[in-house]
Amino acid sequence: MIAAGIVIRRAAARDGVALARLAALDSAAPPPGPLLVAEVEGEIRAALALDGDGAIADPFHRTAELVELLRLRASQLEAAHAASGRRAGGLGEWSPRRRSVATDTA
Question: What are the chain's domains?
């Protein structure tokens, strides 16, 4: 079972090093585009592209449930985007291709 202190949020520029580390642990490249991250006890354990196309997770922890939570949140954000007509990604997310100094929470 995963500990209670789970935080689901959009990745920010400050997460670049942690996401690169997570991708290396998972032997994968970070997913492209804006990401959602799942933190447990202040440590990023999983990340998912907001478009749902790609996830990375820490293989040394139980993360399947975290990835499912990320998928659920991504679908909620997509539904809100569809209802409002706005771009789902918004401004200020961390992306492997670009970085922003602004932060945005999900």
Answer: 6-84 (3.40.630.30)
pLDDT tens string 17-30: 999 999 999 999 98
Give pLDDT, residue 6: 94
Alpha carbon 104 to chain centroid distance?
A: 12
Tokens in use for 40? 């447990």
DSSP, res 15:
G
* C-alpha dist (Å) from residue 21 to 16, 52, 70: 9, 20, 19
Question: Which pTM value belongs to this model?
Answer: 0.74
Closest CA to 73 of 19, 1, 6, 20: 6
